[in-house]
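Contributing new records

If you add data, match the layout below exactly. Sequence lines come first and carry their own label; structure lines follow with theirs. Keep one chain per record. Anything else will be rejected by the validation script.
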Amino acid sequence: MSGLVIAIDGPAASGKGTLARRLAERFGLRHLDTGLLYRATACVLLDEGLPLNDVEAATAAARGLSLVDFDEARLRSREMGEAASVVAAIPPVRAALVDLQRRFAACEKGAVLDGRDIGTVICPNARVKIYVTASPETRAQRRALELTARGEKTDYQSVLADVKKRDERDGSRSVAPLKPAADAIVLDTSDLDIEEAFRVAVEIVERAKR
């Protein structure tokens, strides 16, 4: 990877996606929200009426994905987030999507990727690795507000339960469990607004470029 690869990892609703998009714009790089790949895989299964733990069907769906024509509004729903966490725990699904993500990152100029295992598995040699996190309570509040703004009926307590369940599932899976890379810089956004978090993230990238 000769370009500037920025790996952004972190749990659900930590703010990593927003930071990744803004960093990509700031540094003129392409951006890939890798979580959408798992959401799109889950969406295929749900549309076909197949169980989310159907390994063969989930793997076939992952292999058939492209990086275009995603219905982001649907994929970012609460239902799809929960479903994505289930299929993401299937090792052959993760294996099927590794090459797709690495090809995206390997362009000459570089790229920004955000997800759960970018710095640890997908781009272990990325020049910049940031692990974005926040307390479960903060993340649940953010997610509840986001879902309400989209018109989805929700409540804080159920969203908090979902966040904690996803943290447990993502952190305990056998392949590529969610954790900071050994050389990642941890950015806790619990007490930061988006502008403050973005400023810190830009400083991290600028230091790495020197």
